[in-house]
Amino acid sequence: MGTSGASSGTTSKPPSAIYETLLTFGGAYSNHIRATSAAGHHFGFRTIGVIRGEPHEPLNPVLAYAVEHGMTLTYWDRTTYRRNHEADVVQRLHDEFGEFYLLPEGGSNALALRGCAEIPEEITEHFTTICCPVGTGGTLAGIAAGLQVGQEAIGFSALKGGGFLNEEVRELQEQAYGRERGRRRIELDYHFGGYAKQKPELTAFIDDFADKHGLRLDRIYGAKMMYGVFDLVERGRFAKDSVIVAVITGIAGDV
Hints:
Layout: E1 21-26, H1 31-43, E2 46-52, H2 61-68, E3 72-76, H3 78-81, H4 87-97, E4 101-103, H5 110-116, H6 119-122, E5 129-134, H7 138-145, E6 152-157, H8 165-177, E7 183-187, H9 200-213, H10 222-234, E8 244-246
Parallel strand pairs: 1-2, 1-4, 2-3, 5-6, 5-8, 6-7
């Protein structure tokens, strides 16, 4: 697995070195954990997932998928997990697993932003507003950086108390580009109780959306965003000539 330009945590290898193992972090329902395991399986490199919280059997569909695709899982209590960026904590991982390339939670680093900044360019239809779910802020930060004048990005926080994400997005953009880029904002009122939480109205929305459009949204991220988009439209929060694009960042599976 090749890398270039991103920090790999506490390691003797330079950032441009070749690694055979990728280690990253996520919650028990993390789309990022699932995607990382799939990438490792497809491209033939080892993956390690550090999961927030205690292990539970049987594994939920996300973690079961990760294990089936070769990912090694290890679990950290929430206090230790919050310190996952600190050198002594990262060194403990190196002591246990050896050399690895460290990818931050959610995959949110400077390289990821440059990849996500390509998303607006890939949309061939004219649009004024692009929406995406927000977990760690990387996708929104990247998309906003790739916008044209007159376009806006709106993120929908999947986390309760997600106001801190505005600062996370700003810091990510400054790391990647040296400054903030693109019009953006984060809606904070569509978390339905917090990460991986849901309420009957969200379940009903998911079922109705699937019946009408043939697409079952995941309840962790995509459904909350789409519920928010529909609600903002009904409340007249968009101009009448708005053209809205919604970015689905995960699949429903059985979660």
